[in-house]
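Duplicate of #3305? Posting structure anyway:
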């Protein structure tokens, strides 16, 4: 547990996979965590963080950004269209682009504000009803649609079903990315980031293994 333990494990997983550690970005998912735990990780020099709610992120990150240089924020949770503008102003990357309405809204706001975060298309690899993401057999068409809108799609993201072998989902995501010429793969969390790195992850989203368990109470 802790940042150095996880960065060591990321480096080891890269070595085992014959990959350069610079290819893998560790996104420290700080949602729900007490601010002192987040600050401790900033003090250790880490700068890339993930949040899953726009509102929660807007409440804590402007202060941290005023105190620490070079912070990069990734939105890893679902995006509602009425929060799109705020998300685009706050986040450097959005991992949850998954429907035409959001793609169109992002494209329109990008024109207005003159910049756009890096985008990942979320794929619902397990085809779960309750989960966000485009279905695998609709991914190619949706990625093409995003490209027609000139959106900066960098890669794909998935959250495997809790009760299935994550590697199968990571492999499927990698396959969809490869056939669409996308380099980015946002996959792997605390329990499975090493397997994700073995299958090509470029962004691992690790929360509790860095900060400790989340207390939702
Ligand atoms: C919370 C969250 C994570 C981090 O989960 P851990 O199991 O704590 O590592 C990663 N990705 C998404 C989309 C999340 O919501």
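Output from current build:
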């Amino acid at each position: 547990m802790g940042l150095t333990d996880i960065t060591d494990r990321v480096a080891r997983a890269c070595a085992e996979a014959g990959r350069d550690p610079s290819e893998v970005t560790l996104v420290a998912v700080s949602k729900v965590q007490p601010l002192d735990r987040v600050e401790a990780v900033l003090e250790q020099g880490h700068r890339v963080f993930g949040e899953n709610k726009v509102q929660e992120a807007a409440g804590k990150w402007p202060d941290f950004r005023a105190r620490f240089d070079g912070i990069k924020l990734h939105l890893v949770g679902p995006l509602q269209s009425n929060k799109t503008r705020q998300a685009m102003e706050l986040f450097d990357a959005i991992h949850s682009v998954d429907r035409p309405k959001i793609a169109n809204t992002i494209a329109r706001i990008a024109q207005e504000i003159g910049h756009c975060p890096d985008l990942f298309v979320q794929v619902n690899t397990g085809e779960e009803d309750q989960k966000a993401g485009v279905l695998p057999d609709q991914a190619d068409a949706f990625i093409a649609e995003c490209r027609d809108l000139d959106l900066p799609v960098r890669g794909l993201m998935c959250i495997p079903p809790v009760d299935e072998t994550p590697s199968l989902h990571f492999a499927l995501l990698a396959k969809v990315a490869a056939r669409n010429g996308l380099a980015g793969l946002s996959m792997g969390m605390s329990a499975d980031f090493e397997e994700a790195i073995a299958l090509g992850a470029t962004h691992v989203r690790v929360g509790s293994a860095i900060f400790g368990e989340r207390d939702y109470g």
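Confirmed duplicate; merging threads. Strands lie at 25-29, 48-51, 72-75, 93-97, 118-122, 153-157, 184-186, 203-206. The two ends are 22 Å apart (CA to CA).
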